[in-house]
Amino acid sequence: MALKPETDAVSGVATTGHEWDGIKELDNPMPAWWVYTFYACIAFAAVWVVFYPSLPFVRGTLGYTGRSDLSRVMEAERARTEPMLARIRAATPAAIAADPELRGFALAGGRVAFANNCAGCHGAGGQGAVGGFPSLADDDWIYGGSFDAIQQTITVGVRNGEHPDARGVAMPAFAQAGLTPAQIGTLADHVLSLSGAGPASAPGAALYAENCVACHGDRGEGNRELGAPRLNDQVWLYGGDRAAIGRTIANARAGVMPAWGSRLDPATINMLTVYVHALGGGEQ
């Protein structure tokens, strides 16, 4: 149906012909300033298309691209930070930590590198997570918490198949090695007793001596050379209740960490080392 514009009797302004529930739409013109601004934007857009990349496959007469601008900014930033990075690269993590200027720079850079590469597994604050992601903010270390130990772990990683010196050895899956479910339960009870979370038993102690002592030690003190975690504290990678420990004994665990030495610059490795050491659990 065709619209029927008419003049509004109250305002004297023509209507558009639209009406909703007795309410008529007035055909007021746009303010002149708005119209001129709109036209100016159209003209500006036309000029922009000529000079800057605005359409597919059209780079603009100035040859500007966001990628080239980013490259320029990044190159300028590299030139600005390279003198300090060279000092970081040439120093040991311990020497960096002992120099207030280098330490401040390393902590700032290490915080960014940690967020980009490590926080996904170890948490934003290095708190770790149940499921095989160790906390880096306590004093419980699988491979050692000294500067050298942390640097080595970051560089070569853990059971990754990338680096010939990667940390870690395989733990047997004792369900496949011949232990029965009852024996696994008894062994789990003994492991709990090592941290004071349950009573010790002669059968459990015998199973532990036969299957676990070689890696985890007589008292569950662990072995950093092998990457065998301590069992006599309350820190657990995969859960510390009887069921979780039983699953670990039965099926084994084999956490993996990348070898960051092939991915990150030595300066970044050093900054990460200093940062992780400073999270709260570093050793001398």
Strand order of the largest sheet: 1-2
Unreliable spans are none
Outline type: elongated
Question: What number is the mean pLDDT?
Answer: 91
**Given the structure, what is the number of helices?**
11
Largest sheet: 2 strands, antiparallel
Task: Indicate the CATH class of the domain at 81-166 and 257-278.
Answer: Mainly Alpha
Quaternary: single chain
Tell me the β content: under 5%
Order of helices and strands: EEHHHHHHHHHHH
> In angstroms, what separates the terminal alpha carbons?
87 Å
Total strands: the figure is 2
Radius of gyration: 33 Å
- What is the architecture of the domain at 81-166 and 257-278 at the second tier of CATH? Orthogonal Bundle
Structural class: mainly alpha
The CATH homologous superfamily of the domain at 81-166 and 257-278 corresponds to Cytochrome c-like domain
The share of residues in helices is 40-55%
Q: Would you give the CATH topology of the domain at 81-166 and 257-278?
A: Cytochrome Bc1 Complex, Chain D, domain 2
How would you describe this protein?
It contains eleven helices and two strands, in the order E-E-H-H-H-H-H-H-H-H-H-H-H. The chain is mainly α and 284 residues long. Among the domains are: 108 residues, Cytochrome Bc1 Complex, Chain D, domain 2; 71 residues, Orthogonal Bundle (Cytochrome Bc1 Complex, Chain D, domain 2). The protein has a two-stranded antiparallel ribbon with strand order 1-2. Helix 2 packs across helix 11 and helix 4 crosses helix 11. The longest helix is centred in the N-terminal third of the chain and has 25 residues. The radius of gyration is 33 Å and the shape is elongated. The mean pLDDT is 91.
